[in-house]
Amino acid sequence: MTLLRPPALRPGDTIAVLCASSPVPSRRHLESGLRAMESVGLRPEVFDTARDTGSRYDYLAGTDAERAADLTRALSDPKYAGVFLACGGYGAQRTLELMDWSRVDASAPKVVVGYSDVTALLEAIAVKVGWVSLFGPMVACSGFWQGPGEYDFKELMKLLYTPSAVRRLTFPGSRVLVPGAAEGLTLGGTATLIAANFGTDTSYPVRDGILFLEDVDELPFRLDRIFTQFRRAKAYLDGVRGIILGTFTESGDPEHVDRLLAERFGDLGVPVLAGVNIGHNCEMQTYPVGVRARLDADAGTLTFLDQVLAEPQSVHG
Asked: What is the pLDDT of residues 90-112, one digit of tens each?
């Protein structure tokens, strides 16, 4: 399947900033992230959910209906060239339960950026409206709020403003679990969220795809359970072309995690590259979801066969 590429951004574009999951961890960080956006010419508009401090439950930014309403407005109003999630946490799947995707014009894709819990939303966007999206840093989280000098922020903005200059991701610190090369559609995200989508109407099987996985704060036995669920969910994993494994921080003994990754993914008959700098607690590159690409595990590279974003429109909304 081919997904629609949103147009690249231009200085002066208005960006919706909202929460689909938990409240922002720090109001100061949110304000700093907004200033960083403004410093590169973007015009952030902060939605109510990004200001909510946990009015219903302390782990949710507003009610499910409020988050779904904010997300629907951001995705459907042509005023917004993009949607930047302020943070992850928990709650995106509750938001998705109330989404009315018929209100979103699938023929008018726009940039959507987030990671961690936002994985559920990125996968839903691929299924429901067929758009390419970006697994990348969030406004009130590290790598973004510290300012435009941060590596994560710079890598994201380079892709958003000049996608023609971003044809390849290189992972010099990576390690080959299974050698080889493969081509396919870039898919995946945070492993727990992908697994939690199994059996729902927003799960996107990775047949003919390159699957990326990362996670955080999961003990090794929990990672084992998640990875085993991937192996047993045949309808999801069958036909995968290659696997990219990012960070698995705060998840116990790294050597144990490495052995687990090799044991659970090393026998699938496809190239596997581990230790790439995408995910939590690292200087993070932005990973596009839904773009044709070539994984070369031996070289430690992911080369995009299509430009990630379309050329910018002359005007937005």
From this structure: 999 999 999 999 999 999 999 99
